[in-house]
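Minutes, project check-in
Item: structure for the 210-residue chain
Input as provided by the requester:
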Amino acid sequence: MTNDYYNRKYAEGDFHYNPEYERTWLQNHLVDRFDMKPGDRVLDLGCGKGLHASLLADLGFRVFGVEKTVEGVKGAKQRGSAAEFIQASAADLATYFDESYFDLIFCRGMSWFHRELHVVCPVTGVNVSEKVPELFRFIKPGGLFVLQISTDFSGNHPERDTHNRRLSEFVRLFELHGEIVHKSNWNGVEVYSNEQAADVKGNLVIATRK
């Protein structure tokens, strides 16, 4: 999905979220699970129209949302939350932040992670495995990178849709950059192998401690 697609999407509306459900999910599966503390610096990477960044700011964190699209940032700023929103690519964080600045980077469904992970993607033009080390530069020692991503773990790669990467592909992506401290589906059910994850389904949350 290209930048133009997301600009059109955000100009017309947003993805369908239940804000109360999302707030509860963030509290249970991010804040409580990883023992986040009030005032922790959080980056919502690829924040879209800023719902999750705004909810995290409401929960007491110092939150920045980075989003590449004009319409996404426009909608995010209209929420009037305490989160700060920046129109920029994930590849341009050094323009805005010091190294080791964040306690946690949260990435929910950013397009980079929906397609090829270890080669240049023809849609995004990015080799994600080459970009991930740059992202970790901005996490303080002991901090976390948490990816929440859609997949059925089947390994199917539909040409015109998001890819369903296997668990091992995400493990391979992150294991070089820290300790993988959590792997579960979105309901909190632990996943530990390609076969078991494909049986459980329910998408992926994977957390890596720097």
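Outcome recorded: The chain has seven helices and seven strands.
No further action items on this chain.
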